[in-house]
Design goal:
- 79% of the residues lie in helices and 0% in strands.
- It is mainly α and 137 residues long.
- The protein has a single domain, classed as Up-down Bundle (Four Helix Bundle (Hemerythrin (Met), subunit A)), CATH 1.20.120.580.
């Protein structure tokens, strides 16, 4: 294995560890009280943002390891699905996670905290499951 591939694999493992850490934090702290606790809510949004970024970074790194130039998040996901690296359900899950991340970061149409907390709760297990299915086999 080439040194370049080893470095990419090491980065993928670092990103997986980050992803799992962020999801576990969210799962430990997500509760009905979050909607009324601005500090915790913002902390959870930040953790979710970092989890989403780790998931899409993993996809970009895998694409690079396949000697294909990494592109935008959605194109990378489509490529990995087309190549059979990840299944279509996993690609859809990660796109949903990335879409919510974009809504939270850019505040498209304002933020509905109650709705976004429900979405975080639903997407974190999907993201964790997707990553474990994809990267651990």
């Amino acid at each position: 294995m080439e040194a370049h591939d080893i470095r990419i694999r090491e980065r993928i493992l670092q990103k997986i560890e980050m992803l799992i850490d962020r999801i576990e934090f969210i799962e430990r702290h997500l509760s009905d009280a979050v909607v009324s606790d601005r500090i915790l809510r913002k902390a959870l949004y930040k953790e979710f943002q970092e989890a989403a970024e780790a998931a899409t970074d993993i996809c970009a790194l895998i694409r690079r390891m396949l000697s294909s130039s990494a592109q935008d998040d959605y194109t990378n996901l489509d490529y990995l699905v087309t190549e059979g690296i990840i299944d279509p359900e996993t690609g859809k899950d990660i796109k949903s996670v990335n879409g919510l991340r974009n809504r939270l970061v850019h505040e498209y149409d304002g933020i509905n905290d109650a709705l976004h907390m429900l979405q975080c709760n639903g997407l974190c297990p999907a993201c964790a499951g997707s990553q474990r299915r994809c990267w651990y086999g």
